[in-house]
């Protein structure tokens, strides 16, 4: 009786290895760019935060935690953190709520639906510098749009970006107006994935629009809400354009935000080591908030 022939599997294994090598080769350009422009600078920033800033012929000196101790006693840093907390607390929920409201409105069949969607999305495609200058004209005391409207009711002009009590909130309003249209696109895409059969079943059961939104729509768009909330949080801590054009952190640091303070220290005063220290703190805050959002909201997310 002849012995059974052996089954050789070398060729499939070679094919698997070849596919694995090809996959890594395709990923290599993106990985090199990610490592060279993201991970390596992040590591270098952490290292720079423990050294002094080299100036002229004076080399950098190891300081340990001195920069972090200086940061904790820096009144401007504390003011920037408070302002950023207020800015984030307003812009994140306001942008999400406004974007969702706009998406719900333009998802229905209404006259001029396409034109209205374009109008909502237009602020997103405008350059941030242009947006800031447009709103500077709106805020212009006496001649701006808002003071012209206030003048119809006999109200006195207000220097919206020139007084400490309103400067931060003026920038906050610009941010909400600018990014709500961008977030609307994601909500609109999520709303269009909801099966029409669910709407018909809810209508047969006599459910109101609010009940359908709260019981069906809101749970189904939670993955999009999580994505939008993380992006809104990142935007709340990386805003610098509007501050640079409209107030430059003033008056009296009333509208200074963390990233603008980092820019100020790094490029205006050329204190790169202290700017690196502030950057480390900002990255840690974003990491903690982002991870917290995933842990808190992921339990309520329905991916199917």
Please provide a brief summary of the model.
The chain is mainly alpha-helical.
| Number of spatially distinct domains | 2
Helix count? 13
Q: SS-based structural class?
A: mainly alpha
CATH fold annotation of the largest domain: MetI-like fold
**Model regions low in confidence, pLDDT < 50 over at least 5 residues:** none
What oligomeric state do these chains adopt?
single chain
Would you report the number of β strands?
0
What average pLDDT do the residues reach? 86
Helix content: over 70%
Proportion of residues in β-strands: under 5%
Shape: flat
The CATH architecture classification of the largest domain is Orthogonal Bundle
The CATH class assignment of the largest domain is: Mainly Alpha
Report how far the terminal alpha carbons are from each other: 57 Å
Q: Specify the CATH homologous superfamily of the largest domain.
A: MetI-like
Radius of gyration: 26 Å
User: How can the largest sheet be summarized?
Assistant: none
């Amino acid at each position: 009786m002849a012995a059974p022939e052996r089954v050789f599997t070398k060729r499939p294994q070679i094919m698997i290895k070849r596919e694995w090598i090809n996959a890594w080769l395709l990923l290599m350009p993106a990985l090199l760019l990610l490592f060279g422009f993201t991970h390596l600078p992040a590591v270098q920033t952490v290292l720079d935060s423990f050294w002094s800033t080299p100036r002229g012929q004076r080399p950098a000196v190891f300081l340990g935690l001195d920069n972090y101790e200086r940061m904790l006693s820096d009144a401007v840093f504390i003011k920037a953190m408070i302002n950023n907390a207020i800015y984030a607390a307003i812009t994140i929920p306001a942008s999400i709520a406004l974007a969702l409201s706009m998406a719900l409105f333009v998802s229905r069949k209404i006259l001029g639906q396409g034109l209205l969607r374009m109008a909502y999305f237009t602020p997103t495609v405008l350059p941030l510098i242009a947006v800031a200058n447009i709103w500077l004209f709106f805020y212009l005391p006496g001649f701006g749009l808002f003071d012209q409207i206030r003048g119809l009711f006999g109200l006195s002009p207000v220097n919206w970006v020139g007084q400490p009590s309103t400067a931060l909130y003026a920038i906050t309003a610009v941010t909400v107006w600018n990014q709500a249209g961008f977030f609307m696109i994601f909500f609109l895409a999520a709303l269009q994935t909801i099966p029409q059969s669910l709407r018909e079943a809810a209508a047969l059961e006599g459910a109101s629009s609010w009940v359908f939104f709260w019981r069906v729509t809101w749970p189904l768009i939670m993955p999009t809400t999580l994505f939008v909330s993380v992006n809104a949080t990142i935007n709340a801590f990386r805003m610098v354009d509007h501050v640079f054009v409209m107030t430059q952190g003033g008056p009296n640091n009333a509208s200074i935000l963390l990233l603008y303070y980092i820019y100020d220290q790094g490029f205006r005063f050329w204190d790169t080591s202290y700017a690196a220290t502030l950057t480390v703190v900002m990255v840690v805050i974003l990491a903690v908030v982002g991870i917290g959002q995933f842990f808190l909201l992921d339990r309520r997310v329905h991916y199917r």
